[in-house]
Amino acid sequence: RRPDGCGIIIFGASGDLVYRKLLPALYHLYARNLMPEKFYILGFARTDMTDDAFRERAREALVDAHEPDAPETVTKFLSKCMYVSGDYKDPAAYKRLQTKAATCDCDFSEKENKLFYLALPPQLHPSVVSRLSECGLTAEGENASPWARVVFEKPFGHDLNSALELDKHLSSMLDPSQIFRIDHYLGKETVQSILMLRFANIMFEPLWSQRYIDNIQITVAESVGVEHRGGYYESAGCLRDMFQNHMLQMLSLVTMEPPTRFEAEFVQAERVKLLRAIRPWSERTLKDNIVRGQYAAGTVHNEKAVGYHDEANIAKDSATETFVGMKLYIDNWRWQGVPIYMRSGKRLHMRESEVAVTFKRVPHSMFGFASQHEMPANILVMKIQPNEGVDLTIHTKQPGPKTCMASLSLSFKYEEVFGITPPDAYERLLLDCMLGDRTLFLSRKGVEAAWTIVDPILNFWRDHPDKAPLHSYEAGSWGPQASDDLLLRSGHQWRNPP
Ligand code: BG6
């Protein structure tokens, strides 16, 4: 289904996210005939730029994103892109925006549907929404747009209090149905397929609990450093940047109860319930079960990489973490006692994200060559990216006259089976937003539940730096030794892909 016509107004249009993700995603939807028949894209940012300069930038973005060479389609797409510059807090700039929106396409009336995308730091969210609302741009109804939706790019707030404040502010101006909080990990094909794997197959669910699962590991490893986002990253750090959102959302999909229907209300509610079941931290677990690290110089993919302190816009004595590893528990019947290990970091050995579910060993070995404790476990690995797919390790008889065992992998590779690489997460989420489907977006309660888990860690680090040392790790490694030790203490180890 194609969405109804709409204007897409992007704040922060000269920024990195718009260049790398949003413009290519919108183009890709357009090239696949999934954009509305009538639409325009109106960029807004402080940088002074003409429409043509913005179009040129958009063209470069498409080239950099390796979009297929289709000059006519690109030209048509670019003709729908416009730009307005101004200060995010200046009411006059919004008037210009409003006038431009009205003239963007002669087929459009001011009362067309509107999608506002705030690719901006959270401090700017309240003023932008206030100004939009003052101009009547977010109004919905008979004498206004049939719908006006606002997408908020993460981070949603800086901590629990600021997220609550922001919510209060937004709900005084917008109806909850107009608010779309994005976490692009939920739009990844392989993250969505966690739900399909769990709930479209009968064979996993009966085993999906503390009775048969020994531990779960979630890794999101990046080989890149902070790139040119030093300013943002210094104030965020890995915990806010990756755990408050992506990591916890993935965890909730892997461990939540089955929703009754694949609809926003049901899916969001189960995700929230799961997050609320995560065992609260104690001073002991904050100290013993969480490791933070920061990369030092090293070699990544055979190239020298500078340490975090030598990256652009980073304070020489910065204590911002670029790696976090943690162990946590979920206090409910299904997951009691199952350790969940999660880690994410920049400048790690390679880019690799996966969810690995390690099952318990068989309860008794009938084979003379191995005791019960020597029998290897089955491991189900959901490969999120790259090399998207699923691997299930099973054990079988090694051919030959003797009774020997061989371990092998039943695996499926997304690209081989479907013949395409998975589309970018933003495509799906932008389309869902235009269609008004909130299933893959975050609810207010979901964001709060995630901050409730992350806030005590941030406070502990701030108040007790002596009890939570910042470990250094070499760029190109798998993180600090303390992260390996965290698992070794429980008799486990990280699965480090070769
Ligand atoms: C973003 C973070 O949300 O996710 C970045 O701000 C991170 O720091 C990125 O690099 C990772 O996303 P992906 O889709 O490349 O895995």
UniProtKB/TrEMBL annotation:
One GO MF term attached to the UniProt entry: glucose-6-phosphate dehydrogenase activity
GO biological process assignments: glucose metabolic process; pentose-phosphate shunt, oxidative branch
Binding-site residues for substrate, renumbered to this chain: H184, K188, E222, D241, K346
PROSITE patterns: G6P_DEHYDROGENASE
Pathway: Carbohydrate degradation; pentose phosphate pathway; D-ribulose 5-phosphate from D-glucose 6-phosphate (oxidative stage): step 1/3
Source organism superkingdom: Bacteria
Record key words, sorted: Carbohydrate metabolism, Glucose metabolism, NADP, Oxidoreductase
E.C. number: 1.1.1.49
Domain Glucose-6-phosphate dehydrogenase NAD-binding: 9-192
Binding site for NADP(+): R46, K154
Residues at the catalytic site: H246 (proton acceptor)
Keyword field contains Zinc: no
Function, as annotated: Catalyzes the oxidation of glucose 6-phosphate to 6-phosphogluconolactone.
UniProt-recorded name of the protein: Glucose-6-phosphate 1-dehydrogenase
Organism phylogeny: Bacteria, Pseudomonadati, Thermodesulfobacteriota, Desulfovibrionia, Desulfovibrionales
Gene expressing this chain: zwf
